[in-house]
Prior knowledge:
- It is built from seven helices and ten strands.
- By secondary structure, it is α/β, with parallel strands linked by helices.
- Helix 1 crosses helix 2.
- The longest helix is centred in the N-terminal third of the chain and has 17 residues.
Amino acid sequence: xxxxxxxLAFLVALRGLADPAALAQEQITVSYPGPAIFFLPTExxxxxxxxxRQNLDVKLILTKSDVDRAxxxxxxxxxxxxxxxxxxSAARGLPVRMLFVGxxxxxxxxxxxxxxxxxxxxxxxxxxxxxxxxxxHITTKAILKxxxxxxDKDAVYKVLNVGARIPxxxxxxxxxxxxxxxxxxxxxxxxxxxxxxxxxSSRSTxxxxxxxxxxxx
Length: 217
């Protein structure tokens, strides 16, 4: 965590050195999937005034992965904290680049209904994902595939933001999904089961700062 915060400080310091004459704060728009521990370094940097010291007014906006890719490429936003969708954008030829990565071990846990004892039992079930074609969705599909399921045929994906997944589990509109650890433990208190912790079984580019290749910053 400390390394990520230091990296953010280094990034904004470089910005200040590149343009020392800038006095007025410039508004920088940064998109992210929703409140999660991944993005704590950015919030710490904002609250500690690291950005303001470099004359930057950072505004965080909540987006979905499919909208996010187009917004970054068209300069409607300046940066994004998404990882998987950035890789996909680059593979499709969009002018994007990662400046640094906050972590390669996502803090996700696969939460399921209490009667589910294995990933294979999720065949035909509704899986909650943060967006389509983003890191959350890609990781969910990878888990299904690693456990003998066809991720494109054996599951239904429902887009749900952070904060909406536990209500979806409680209402029965979602059967399972990767939840941030804080959500996962809250779900466990509500009678649901943590089937596996993704940070111990895979790596994924999470919480990166990504910009357009021609971004002036």
